[in-house]
Amino acid sequence: MLFFIISLTNIFKSDKIKHKGCLFAMIKIMLSRKLGELRITQKELSTITGIRANTINDLYHDIAERVSLEHLDKICEALECDLLDIMEFVPNQTRTVEKCKGRSIFKQKG
After folding, report:
1. What is the separation of C-alpha 105 from the centre of its chain, rounded to a whole number of angstroms?
2. Are the beta carbons of 28 and 87 closer than 8 angstroms?
3. What is residue 106's predicted lDDT score, i.e. its pLDDT?
4. Predicted pLDDT of residue 67
5. How far apart are the C-alpha atoms of 16 and 34, rounded to whole Å?
6. How confident is the model over 74-104, as pLDDT tens digits?
7. Do the Cβ atoms of 40 and 50 come closer than 8 Å?
8. pLDDT band, residue 20 (cuts 50/70/90)
9. SS3 content of the chain, % helix, strand, coil (to 5)
């Protein structure tokens, strides 16, 4: 049982997760880089924002599966940065969903 838990942990720590034969890229959380630039520790950020140290650690190591909008707001406010300074979208190598087709709310004449 312990081996199974360790294996799952290692899968979720990787940059990409394989699902049904496709590689998925993720939203990359680059909090470690930003904290390094500012020379702020995880503990300091946790204290300033009131976010649990474990949550900050998961974000720091880019292993968080879900991120609270409230937490992102507090982190950006504390670090005086933009969301794009701590997060990045990395496109999937293989399309996982169909592209959205925009619909105009205005009727075209003609």
Report:
1. 33
2. yes
3. 66
4. 94
5. 22
6. 999 999 999 999 999 988 888 777 888 877 6
7. no
8. very low
9. 45, 10, 45
Residue 78 near residue 49, CB atoms below 8 Å:
yes
Cβ 80 vs Cβ 73: under 8 Å:
no
Architecture of domain 29-91: Orthogonal Bundle (1.10)
φ, ψ dihedrals at 48, nearest 5°: -65, -45
Least Cα distance to 64 among 94, 36, 30 occurs for 30
Which candidate, 78, 74, 94, places its Cα nearest to that of 38?
Answer: 78
Supply angle C-alpha 102, 103, 106, rounded to 5.
140
91, HSE (Cβ side, Cα atoms, 13 Å):
4
Q: What is the pLDDT of residues 31-86, one digit of tens each?
A: 999 999 999 999 999 999 999 999 999 999 999 989 999 999 999 999 999 999 99
